Amino acid sequence: MSKKSFFSSFGFAAEGIRYAMTTQRNMKVHGVVALLVIVAAAVLQLSSIRWLFLLLAITLVLTAEMFNTALEAVVDLISSDIHPLAKAAKDTAAGAVLLTAAFAVVVGIVVFYRPLVALFGG
Fold it and tell me: So where does this one cross the membrane (predicted)?
């Protein structure tokens, strides 16, 4: 692989992230929530292990949303007709995002519970 094509791949990846962030409402929501979580973690001065779990959960949600976006684009490219298999593919990808987001909520509760209790004297 040439250096040009290797470095070009980063540009293509950035285009994909930009596309998802600018065209997908849910990606914007996930991005805003991720930023709020990161700010809260910084304010609470969370431990490295807590940061690790938060960043893992955030990355999983954003990645799942991007896979969902990519799958929807491919399905729409193949046909504009409503087909049961196309619906199944899109619904399954959306379900994967939902499961990942639910996991992220659980991680957030586990990570923030004790620091918030300590902060508010519970």
Answer: 27-45, 51-71, 92-113
9's tokens = 């791949």
Residue 118: count other Cβ atoms within 10 Å of its Cβ. Answer: 10
Q: Is 39 helix (H, G, I), strand (E, B) or coil?
A: helix
CA-wise closest residue to 46 among 121, 119, 122: 119
Amino acid in position 111? V
15 is in an annotated binding site: no
Residues identified as active-site: 65
Name the CA dihedral angle for 48, 33, 99, 19, rounded to a multiple of 10 degrees: -110
Condensed to tens digits (0 to 9), the pLDDT of residues 83-104 reads 999 999 999 999 999 999 999 9
Q: Is 81 annotated as belonging to a binding site?
A: no
Q: With a cut of 90, say whether residue 76 has pLDDT above it.
A: yes
Class of domain 3-120: mainly alpha
Residues 6+ apart with CB under 8 A from 106: none
Per the annotation, does 28 bind a ligand?
no
